[in-house]
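Lecture 7 notes: from sequence to structure.

We start with a single chain of 289 residues. Read the sequence below before looking at the structure.
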Amino acid sequence: MPELPEVEALAQFLREHAVGAVVGRVDVAALSAVKTFDPEVTALSGRDVTAAGRWGKFLGLECDGLWLITHLSRGGWLRWLDEPSPTPPRPGGKSPLALRVHLFTPEADTPAFDLTEAGTKKRLSVYVVTDPDQVPGIARLGPDALAVSEPEFAEILRGTSQRIKTAIVDQTLLAGIGNAYSDEILHTAKISPFANTKTMPAEKVEQLYAAMRSVLVYAIDRSVGQDAARLKSEKRSGLRVHARTGMTCPVCGDTVREVSYVDRSFQYCPTCQTGGKILADRRMSRLLK
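Now the structure, written as tokens:
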């Protein structure tokens, strides 16, 4: 799933490549992805692209007073096409394409970008609104993970009582962090995913805040400036524990372990984070002693 660093990099990519262009034809290939109907998607055609923005993991393009906003969800992505096919895609096909936006640039080029989604569970969403806050998911967002101050961060954690892994991926508490970077942040901070927010010592909260900023800023620095097609591999190459089950922790040499849920999992290092304890698979609902 694209998280704050990748979405920020995509926003920057659109600022550099799409802002200043004019929207041409908009092709909807997956009708279920479009969550708003007034204004219609076709209302974007003929409008100047004036800005690109990010709200947590939401990505948006401003077109003369209208915003095209998407949440790429778990399997979504943005693909840039220098020479798109002039033939409109067939709606309802098996292609991963959800939406294609054709552009006319000041240099007389005619690129496009696709919003695509891999897999069978189609969760990518597209909105056309006059104000980003009209998107329900944006209206519910907590403060951005890179905009929140350390005292605000501590107050957010003190205001809830749950596992820290759950808290920092809750977009209503803190916007932008997902499964991958939460694993990386907790590993960097040397904190167990099951540590409780309510009882976390002040020094651990301070470590966690510093780790959050360092991990996200580093990931953004790696991502911004990359071609949109290379962002996924750039993300993977920078991860130390997430999606590295069974591999060696680059910090201590222990084996990276996994906790699995019904449709997702997270990774951690026992030596770095849990004092050597192995966390049980959550399907077993217990902690191994």
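The domain at 150-273 is CATH 1.10.8.50 (Helicase, Ruva Protein; domain 3). Keep this in mind for problem set 3.
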